[in-house]
Amino acid sequence: MTTHRRVPRLSPQNYFGRQTYFISICCDHRVPYFRELVTAQNTVAQLLQCAAKHSFLLHAFCLMPDHVHILAEGTHDRSDLREFVRMFKQRTAFQFRKSNGRTLWEMS
User: Fold this and answer.
1) C-alpha–C-alpha distance, residues 79 and 56, integer Å
2) Is residue 62 in some structural domain?
3) What residues make up the domain containing 86?
4) Rounded to 5 degrees, what are φ and ψ at 70?
5) Rounded Cα–Cα distance for residues 99 and 108 (Å)
6) pTM score, two decimals?
7) Which one, of 98, 93, 85, 76, lies nearest residue 28 by Cα?
């Protein structure tokens, strides 16, 4: 039996606007996928693109072997953190599955 930890969530209005967020996203089963340079480079490229597209300034980010930390700030009143993270995870997961046949991110 697999158990999923409950991830605490704020109320929806807390994910919009000109706010600063610290986010951690873990690889599926904490597998160190980012030890592979190509995977790390592709992930960073998608992070930068998604941040720009969704009106987020990246103050800092750090890819660890099995997770990523992101410090991001919304630059517009309509900046939507949930959509930014959703698109980042979707694009990186699709690209990773296509090239490796595996799941990149843990279920949240």
Assistant:
1) 7
2) yes
3) 18-100
4) -135, 130
5) 23
6) 0.90
7) 93
